[in-house]
């Protein structure tokens, strides 16, 4: 029996996400899939969601939680801004967000202590 390779989870903070192994979305198709999957489970207005990208080690150099570099990105036009207009903290974790004035499913860096839903990608399981 093969289970779905994607598993939505309860809302968690970007800090917890940093301890997991997440390396996606890595394409526009995955970007749409992940965001729409989470939002199919969350009622109300479209929810912002964490992805496993951050710039903790060097400001402006984003990497996945396993330390690998990213080839794909879909930043909102004014992002990443490291919270230049926010007080009092920097923004080192990346989310897919919903804003009426932003491109649908575009990315924003945000404060890692905030709580948003996220999705973990795991290997398929086989039960004998
Ligand atoms: Ca930053
Ligand atoms: Ca930002």
UniProtKB/TrEMBL annotation:
Name of the protein: C-type lectin domain-containing protein
Upper classification of the organism: Eukaryota, Metazoa, Chordata, Craniata, Vertebrata
One GO MF term attached to the UniProt entry: carbohydrate binding
Keyword Electron transport: no
Domain C-type lectin as annotated: residue spans: 27-121
Domain of life according to the entry: Eukaryota
A Pfam family hit: Lectin_C
Gene3D superfamilies: Mannose-Binding Protein A, subunit A (3.10.100.10)
Keywords: Disulfide bond, Lectin
